[in-house]
Write a structure and sequence with these properties.
alpha+beta; Molybdopterin biosynthesis moea protein, domain 2; Molybdopterin biosynthesis moeA protein, domain 3; 4 domains; six-stranded mixed beta sheet; binds adenosine monophosphate; binds magnesium ion
Length: 416
């Protein structure tokens, strides 16, 4: 970890969102280690090696349409060409003969092109009479053929190392006849909640306590990324217990994520311990919600000390942690954070200075798409997070929004 983290003076100005993201991404690298897994088990995993095509896809020249396989030289420039139909080629059941002069073979989509034929005439334009077919003029030699190796040529890179496998990638690997791929080992992430007031579910709340929700949101976000999880529970604001937790976590995992205890002037020990055990910077971010955040290293583990407020946890996770984890998982290139602009149907009060992430709801009215804030925006209000389907992102220098103004939107989910 660079000098930045050792003995950095207390920060006076707020750190911008983009700067913080870049600083984090510059300081994490992919973990070493790989394993070989069956195709299905590669879903969500990251390829550690290029997948090289061991064959052509498609394997044979084949027909893109139902119709007739013919020889272009037999076709007439004006008037129908009568051809003798000498057989049929089905997908998986090729025609074994040769298409000779004046002959045609009935052919189905996907069937191998019979020897001698070089052009496919679609069924709809032909006229059939017994074993004769009449082909009209205007056919292009070589039309409606899918050539061997057209999608993927033997020996070419079908999927590059660093690709995260989704449904399409699994199908592509299978289309090459490959049963196993080499993937990066899973990233090991230890996480715990801090705070004397935080209670685990399963028992009644004592006065002043709140149920731990952060471990569940983090569980969800980390599981979706395909990380190997080490859930270390709730750790009270007690120096000895915290020290043990930080040491155990940093020995067992590549990444340690905590929530709570990183605000300035807090009466707990989390900050002190992080500082003592590792090289950690405490950032005051120009972001709302989620102003305080710690980032650094304890031993060999990368540390993210997220704020305690439940919505701030999710905002900081998505804006700062997720891409860092993807990079550590070996994903290249990192996905582009999709943001697009939509009109906002409501007024939003805002002072310039911090980048605000509001929970938003997309509104579809006929063909018009717009966005509105989703309920109460307090940083502890998870309900509006659950009801939201996007963030409304108001950049640092922007002020209030009037109804009809265009705002940036980051949607929570898409087709992947
Ligand atoms: P802290 O940063 O530790 O001061 O926490 C900020 C706020 O978030 C406080 O109101 C905490 O009670 C709350 N909080 C902290 N951790 C959790 C958690 N794991 N689940 C729910 N709320 C939390
Ligand atoms: Mg706390």
């Amino acid at each position: 970890m660079p000098e930045l983290f050792s003995g950095a003076p207390e920060q006076r100005t707020l750190l911008g969102v983009a700067d913080a993201r870049n600083m984090i991404l510059d300081r994490v690298t992919p973990v070493a280690g790989w394993e070989r897994v069956a195709v299905r088990a590669a879903l969500g995993r990251v390829l550690a090696r290029d997948v090289i095509a061991p064959c052509n896809v498609p394997a044979h020249d084949n027909s893109a349409m139902d119709g007739y396989a013919v020889r272009a030289v037999d076709l007439a420039a004006d008037g129908d060409a009568p051809l003798e139909v000498v057989g049929t080629a089905f997908a998986g059941r090729p025609f074994s003969g040769i298409v000779g002069a004046g002959q045609a073979v009935r052919i189905m989509t996907g069937a191998a092109i019979p020897q001698g034929a070089d052009t496919i005439v679609v069924q709809e334009v032909t006229r059939r009479d017994q074993d004769r077919v009449f082909v009209p003029p205007g056919q292009r030699p070589g039309q409606n053929l899918r050539c061997a190796g057209e999608d993927l040529a033997l020996g070419s890179v079908a999927l590059a190392a660093g690709t995260r496998c989704g449904p399409a990638e699994l199908g592509l690997v299978a289309s090459l006849g490959i049963a196993e791929v080499v993937v990066q080992r899973r990233l090991r992430v230890a996480f715990f909640s801090t705070g004397d007031e935080i209670a685990s579910i399963g028992r009644p709340l004592a006065p002043g306590e709140v149920y731990d929700s952060n471990r569940y949101t983090l569980y969800g976000a980390l599981t979706r990324l395909g990380c190997e999880l080490l859930d270390m529970g709730v750790v009270p604001d007690d120096p000895a217990a915290l020290e043990t937790a930080f040491r155990d976590a940093s020995l067992a995992a590549d990444v340690v994520i905590t929530s709570g205890g990183v605000s300035v002037g807090e009466a707990d020990f989390v900050r002190d311990l992080m500082r003592r055990l590792g090289e950690v910077a405490f950032w005051k971010l120009a972001i709302k919600p989620g102003r305080p955040m710690a980032f650094g290293r304890i031993g060999n583990a990368v540390l993210f000390g997220l704020p305690g407020n439940p919505v701030a946890v999710l905002v900081t996770f998505y804006q700062f942690v997720q891409d860092a984890l993807l990079r550590m998982m070996g994903v290249t290139p990192l996905p582009v954070a999709e943001r697009f602009e939509l009109p906002c149907d409501a007024a939003i009060r805002k002072q310039p200075g911090r980048c605000e992430f509001l929970r938003g709801r997309l509104v579809r009215d006929g063909g018009r798409l717009s966005v509105v804030p989703a309920g109460a925006q307090g940083s502890g209000v998870l309900r509006s997070m659950a009801e939201a389907d996007c963030f409304i992102v108001l950049p640092e220098d922007s002020g209030s929004v009037s109804p009809g103004d265009r705002v940036q939107v980051q949607v929570f989910s898409g087709l992947t």
